[in-house]
């Protein structure tokens, strides 16, 4: 009896703490979030085709994740066998539902991964394969995110003149995608390349944390690389391209949102603001980084020279399409999945 009470207390206690942290986080960012939402009337000034452009870019960003999941769950040796192959509809439904859950449920990406994995397993995918695929996808997409500031810093140090047209950011995203593919393939193919990077990171981290050494950091990075390489064996080029496309299409959506309001800024600086905002989304204080990402991104855009009102309304437009719109879309995908599951479980009546 006591053990069951303790189990209930641990279960509900953890949830209560999570809700408390979320509530405190929302309270802290409430003023900034309200200021952002106060810019809502200005969205009426945006031409309809800008909304269509942002929706198309975000759709491409999510489609890249569907492709990445298919690559991770389907291997060449499965062809011609009875092994289940995840269909595009299943992959899209699972990702949309998981993405929506990560934006409304405390726990963020972890909660979204559970929902996505559950749908894939219910469709017949082996649990071990699903867990391995989702882990590899998370490592690869996070690696691409961490690589972006490394590629951007040289541009910031060189200090070219500010871009008159932020549309150049679309060209920047294309160039970065090509560079990311090259670096990603190098990391997956050459262990020595990964060891050198790992040791460099280890030396830097050792300054703030003595327990981290160059050798331990290199070993950890190689182990993570091996997990990704095994998950996408034989399809490394496709996997790195899909992961970079996911990030670059999302960044292009931010560029489009700012361009819609005539913002002037250096694309490299906008990219740095984007990277920091995406890092804030990984901190599970509020679901999907709600409030923290919005306030952080708007503040960073102001720091790089975007006017305050344009930074607010540009952030609002970007978050409307990248954060808020996927929630009802994911809910509809989940509802459709539940209806389909109920129909297939019941089956046609016997004659």
Bin the strand percentage.
Answer: under 5%
Helix and strand content put the structural class at mainly alpha
Q: Estimate the global geometry from the Cα principal axes.
A: globular
Helical content (DSSP H or I, runs of 4+) = over 70%
Series of H and E elements: HHHHHHHHHHHHH
Total helical elements: 13
- Radius of gyration, rounded? 22 Å
Mean pLDDT: 78
First-to-last CA distance = 49 Å
Query: Major β-sheet, in short?
Result: none
Count of β-strands: 0
- What ranges have pLDDT less than 50 throughout 5 or more consecutive residues? none
Q: What this model shows, in words?
A:
- The protein is mostly helical.
- The protein has a domain at 47-73 and 87-161 and 245-343.
- It has 13 helices and no strands.
- It has helices at residues 2-37, 48-73, 88-104, 109-122, 127-158, 168-189, 191-206, 214-231, 236-259, 267-281, 292-303, 308-324, 326-346.
- α2 (48-73) crosses α12 (308-324).
- The longest helix is centred in the first third of the chain and has 36 residues, at 2-37.
- It is globular and about 50 Å long.
- The N and C termini lie far apart (49 Å).
- 39% of the residues are buried.
- The mean pLDDT is 78.
């Amino acid at each position: 009896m006591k053990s069951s009470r303790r189990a209930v207390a641990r279960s509900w206690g953890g949830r209560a703490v999570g809700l408390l942290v979320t509530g405190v986080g929302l309270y802290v960012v409430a003023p900034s979030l309200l200021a952002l939402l106060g810019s809502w009337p200005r969205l009426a000034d945006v031409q309809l085709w800008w909304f269509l452009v942002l929706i198309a870019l975000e759709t491409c960003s999510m489609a890249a994740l569907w492709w990445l999941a298919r690559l991770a769950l389907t291997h060449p040796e499965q062809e011609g066998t009875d092994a289940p192959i995840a269909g595009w509809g299943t992959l899209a439904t699972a990702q949309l539902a998981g993405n929506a859950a990560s934006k409304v449920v405390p726990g963020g990406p972890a909660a979204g991964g559970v929902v996505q994995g559950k749908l894939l397993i219910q469709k017949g995918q082996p649990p071990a394969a699903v867990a391995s695929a989702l882990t590899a996808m998370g490592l690869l997409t996070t690696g691409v995110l961490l690589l972006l500031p490394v590629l951007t810093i040289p541009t910031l140090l060189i200090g070219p003149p500010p871009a008159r047209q932020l549309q150049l950011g679309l060209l920047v995203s294309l160039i970065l995608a090509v560079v990311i593919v090259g670096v990603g393939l190098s990391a997956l193919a050459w262990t020595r390349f990964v060891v050198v990077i790992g040791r460099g990171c280890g030396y830097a981290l050792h300054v703030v944390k003595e327990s981290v050494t160059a050798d331990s950091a290199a070993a950890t990075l190689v182990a993570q690389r091996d997990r990704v390489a095994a998950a996408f064996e034989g399809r490394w080029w496709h996997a790195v391209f899909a992961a970079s496309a996911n990030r670059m299409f999302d960044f292009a959506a931010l560029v489009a949102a700012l361009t819609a309001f005539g913002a002037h800024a250096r694309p490299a600086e906008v990219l740095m603001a984007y990277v920091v905002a995406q890092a804030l989304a990984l901190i599970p204080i509020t679901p999907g980084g709600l409030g923290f990402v919005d306030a952080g991104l708007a503040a960073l855009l102001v720091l790089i020279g975007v006017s305050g009102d344009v930074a607010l309304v540009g952030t609002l437009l970007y978050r409307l399409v990248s954060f808020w719109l996927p929630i009802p879309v994911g809910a509809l995908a989940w509802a459709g999945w539940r209806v389909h599951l109920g129909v297939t479980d019941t089956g046609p009546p016997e004659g």
